[in-house]
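Students often ask why we bother encoding 3D structure as a string. The short answer is that it lets us treat folding as translation between two languages. Here is a chain of 208 residues written in the first language.
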Amino acid sequence: MLIQEIVNAIIQIAVVLILGLVVWAIFGRKQAGFLKYLGLYAPTGRSMAIALGLCVICTLLSGVFYILPELRAAGAADNTVAGAVRQNGWSAETLAVILVVAGFKTSLSEEIFFRGLIAKRLISWLGFGVGNTIHALLFGSVHLLIFAVPGGPAFTPLLGAAFLLLPGAAGWLMAYANERTGNGSIAPGWLIHALGNAIAYPILAFVV
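And here it is in the second language, the structure alphabet:
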């Protein structure tokens, strides 16, 4: 399982980097270098400290999934990361899988795509408030795909609102950390995202 997840993470990150490279080559070469265009550079030290605080807020928001039975069941279903972790059982390999999936496969690839590629462009075109809000809604909307995958939960208004708004709110905060405190680096958002996932997966798998 660990080797497969490492391979999956490498492939997923490579795909978004290639996509980013294509977009940069077509639209952004005259604006900034490739790494700058996607926010792949060092953040301010202050922004990483702020990111830790925002991670606490995001973790509290995700607590809704731990409290409400309907959300808890959807978040820990067999076809989710938490479900796969639970089926694998607790071990050193499971811990390594959580770190790879939380730190790289989901968070880094999504940060490059959503905060580095999409949020930056929307904020540049529409201003921070409007651009970040549209990006956050797009990020939240992607999580609604859980209702379309085989074995996914049945749609209900409560589940739909939770899977749209909770990730959307977290996405808004991550872009805020990057653009308002991190000098445009996606590192603060990556830290928030990675820590949030690393906390959520084992809780959903083994605690609640």
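Translate back mentally: Residues 45-207 form one domain. Keep this in mind for the problem set.
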